[in-house]
Amino acid sequence: MPIPKAHYGGRHTVTLLPGAGIGPELMTYVKEVFSFAGVPVDFEDVDIDPNADDNVDLDYAITSIRRNGVALKGNIETRSTEAGVLSRNVALRNELDLYVNVLHCVSYPGVNSRHKNIDIVIVRQNTEGEYAMLEHESVKGVVESMKVITTTNSERVARYAFEYAKRNGRKKVTTVHKANIMKLSDGLFLETSKRVAKDYPDITHNNMIIDNTCMQLVSNPHQFDIVLTTNLYGAIVSNVVCGLLGGAGLLAGKNFGDHYTVFEPGTRNTGTGIAGKNIANPIAMLNAAVDMLRHLGHKHHAVLIQNAINKTINQGVHTRDLGGDATSRQVVDTIMKYIKQASD
Ligand code: ADP
Ligand code: MG
């Protein structure tokens, strides 16, 4: 059973994790657009100090998400890359058992790109595989890293992909793997997806090796409908498809478990190099916020903001990453102009 979302007097409270880099400025835009559009959502802000040695802030963030059920998130920095210091982003997903990441990649007609009319859904296992964070140096100069694949999690994510296909009238699921080399681990993931596929005779199921998938995505992306894959391949494939559609600044991703949902930009970048310069593309985080509104059932506001975002992009108000010269501020102002027009 999903945990009820925090709901007081017709308003929802959601956890806001600005994270590092461009996260905080993008969250300012989300708040500005929400308040301009009169969205009935209140934020519980949780800052995570990247320099902290302990995980007190992170634990507080997790408690807040458990209470509210829903969060909007920027990328959290982890101070050290030493062994034993685990990624806080990974820890958060694992603690909340957010076992699936869904990235719906649809082309924007107004964005210049090599391929038009792409519509691919990436369903990625989100809590294990290569992200098990079990690495050690067994003897000096020899490092071992564990990749963990379980039947339970492979089955949950496969089931999610096929149920998603059924619900959304999708026709095909492609399992992406490297089972020719990783016969046991990827083999289990692949075999599990084949077994689950048998329960969905109306949906075509095929499979493809990760390396070929990257080539096929770049040369012939229209053959893909739903891509089902493990954690690291999912990260790679997500970045390839986002790159095809216009880069890191556009698309949003969703992290689901049985109880909690976390929304964030699709490629999960920190954007340290472009922070504080008024050049980051605010669209991916705003799209994540719109996804969150739909999830909460605030359809009117979701549609209002979504339409304003689409008009802004299709009118060519683009930040640098999309080849334009608009500032973040100008993009947000244009979105608010369209919200006002639709509300008048
Ligand atoms: P990571 O956090 O994985 O290190 P980066 O922050 O280096 O990733 O981001 C990867 C690339 O994507 C960088 O070139 C960064 O400037 C770009 N990028 C990420 N987010 C945005 C955004 N919202 N707008 C424009 N460019 C972005
Ligand atoms: Mg970086």
Explain briefly what this protein structure is:
The protein has 344 residues and is α/β, with parallel strands linked by helices. Helix content is 40%, strand content 22%.
Question: Would you write up a description of this structure?
Answer:
The protein is of the alpha/beta class. The chain has two domains: 1-101 and 249-343, 3-Layer(aba) Sandwich (Isopropylmalate Dehydrogenase), CATH 3.40.718; 113-119 and 128-245, 3-Layer(aba) Sandwich (Isopropylmalate Dehydrogenase). It has ten helices and 13 strands. The chain has helices at 23-37, 56-68, 88-95, 151-167, 185-197, 210-219, 231-245, 283-296, 299-314, 328-343, and strands spanning 7-8, 11-17, 41-45, 70-73, 100-106, 119-125, 129-139, 142-148, 172-177, 204-209, 226-229, 252-256, 261-265. Strands 1, 2, 3, 4, 5, 6, 9, 10, 11, 12 and 13 form an eleven-stranded mixed sheet that branches. Helix 1 (23-37) links the parallel strand 2 (11-17) and strand 3. It is globular. The termini are far apart. The mean pLDDT is 95. Residues 21-22, 75, 248-249, 269-274, 280-281, 284, 321 line the site of adenosine-5'-diphosphate.
Write a concise keyword list for the protein shown above.
alpha/beta; 10 helices; Isopropylmalate Dehydrogenase; two-stranded antiparallel sheet; eleven-stranded mixed sheet; binds magnesium ion; 344 residues; 22% strand; globular; 2 domains; binds adenosine-5'-diphosphate
